[in-house]
């Protein structure tokens, strides 16, 4: 593996420093990388939607295909039981794969109409699922719904619509305590927040960050509550929405995920490659 060290502006985040950051190229040669997630078994999964594949990489080993075709899978995540959740943009559905490899469809329609193109997903520790349903490019062909949506699925499988944003919702993440849902809006170039109660119901929609440099895509949160947003660069915001640092990459970031045994490595999918950055803070992981 070739290491590329980029010169970054030093910044300060509460209980965390960003000096001497090294951005390392983890793997490359893909068409469009997306949807990274770290498995506790010790490997990284990420999607290549145009190639309709999900790749698996064990650090130090050659990448392999985890699933192909993947129905142009995009976002991926795990739950606390080790089930894999995947947003399949081509089949317009959300699936759950158990440890035995059995695939179950958990969302594909809203009020009798097919979803647009599920994009990103997160699962709270207690089993509540949240995902976004925008439509980019050719995904808009043949749409049955006349809006973009943010959805919630309860542990019992009951699905509800949280919001119909004017712009396209994209990345989704949860605060460390699971009480705040964050959603990136690519068209609005903003980050929205919603309060979540014990039943998983969302309320109090508000714009937390505006004026992001470039359309925001995937987002993640560290254990301190700081929010990592992939856009033209990778800005990091405090829980209050204040910009505390920006990381630059050789390619445009599209999504990110914390990984490695200590969850102190940020894996970043960026166009044709996947990069990684060691940090001195752990990621907030719901599984």
**Overall 3D geometry?**
globular
CATH superfamily: TolB, C-terminal domain
CATH architecture: 6 Propeller
CATH class descriptor: Mainly Beta
Percent of residues in helices: under 10%
Care to describe what's here?
The protein is mainly β and 287 residues long. It has one domain: TolB, C-terminal domain (Neuraminidase), CATH 2.120.10. Helix content is 0%, strand content 46%. The chain is built from no helices and 28 strands. The strands form 8 sheets. Strands 3-28-27-26 form a 4-stranded antiparallel beta sheet, with no helix packed on it. A 4-stranded antiparallel beta sheet has the order 4-5-6-7, with no helix packed on it. It is globular, with a radius of gyration of 17 Å.
Write the SSE topology:
Blueprint: E1 12-13, E2 16-17, E3 23-28, E4 34-39, E5 43-48, E6 53-57, E7 64-67, E8 73-78, E9 84-88, E10 93-97, E11 103-107, E12 109-110, E13 113-114, E14 121-123, E15 129-133, E16 149-153, E17 159-163, E18 169-174, E19 180-185, E20 190-196, E21 202-209, E22 219-221, E23 227-229, E24 234-237, E25 243-247, E26 255-259, E27 265-270, E28 273-278
Antiparallel strand pairs: 1-2, 3-28, 4-5, 5-6, 6-7, 8-9, 9-10, 10-11, 12-13, 14-15, 15-16, 16-17, 18-19, 19-20, 20-21, 22-23, 23-24, 24-25, 26-27, 27-28
What is the compact description of this entry?
It is built from no helices and 28 strands. With 287 residues, the chain is mostly beta strands.
């Amino acid at each position: 593996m070739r290491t590329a060290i980029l010169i970054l502006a030093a910044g300060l985040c509460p209980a965390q420093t960003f000096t001497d950051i090294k951005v390392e190229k983890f793997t490359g040669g893909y068409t469009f990388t997306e949807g990274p997630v770290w498995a506790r078994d010790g490997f990284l999964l990420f999607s290549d939607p145009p190639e309709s594949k999900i790749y698996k990489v064990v650090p130090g080993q050659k990448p392999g295909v985890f699933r192909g075709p993947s129905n142009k899978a995009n976002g991926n995540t795990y739950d606390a039981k080790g089930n894999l959740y995947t947003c399949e943009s081509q089949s317009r559905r959300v699936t759950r794969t158990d440890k035995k490899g059995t695939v179950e469809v958990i969302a594909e329609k809203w009020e009798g109409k097919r979803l647009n193109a599920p994009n990103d997903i997160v699962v709270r520790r207690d089993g509540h699922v949240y995902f976004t349903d925008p439509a980019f490019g050719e995904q808009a062909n043949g749409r049955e719904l006349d809006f973009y949506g943010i959805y919630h699925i309860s542990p019992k499988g009951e699905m509800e619509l949280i919001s119909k944003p004017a712009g396209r919702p994209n990345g989704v993440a949860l605060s460390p305590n699971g009480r705040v849902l964050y959603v990136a809006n690519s068209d609005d170039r903003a980050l929205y927040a919603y309060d979540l109660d014990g039943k998983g119901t969302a309320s109090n929609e508000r714009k937390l960050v505006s004026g992001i440099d470039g359309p925001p895509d995937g987002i993640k949160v560290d254990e301190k509550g700081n929010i990592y947003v992939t856009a033209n660069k990778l800005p990091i915001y405090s829980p209050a929405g204040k910009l505390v640092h920006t990381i630059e990459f050789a390619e445009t970031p599209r999504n990110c995920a914390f990984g490695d045994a200590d969850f102190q490595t940020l894996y970043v999918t960026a166009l044709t490659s996947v990069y990684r950055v060691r940090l001195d803070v752990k990621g907030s992981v719901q599984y």
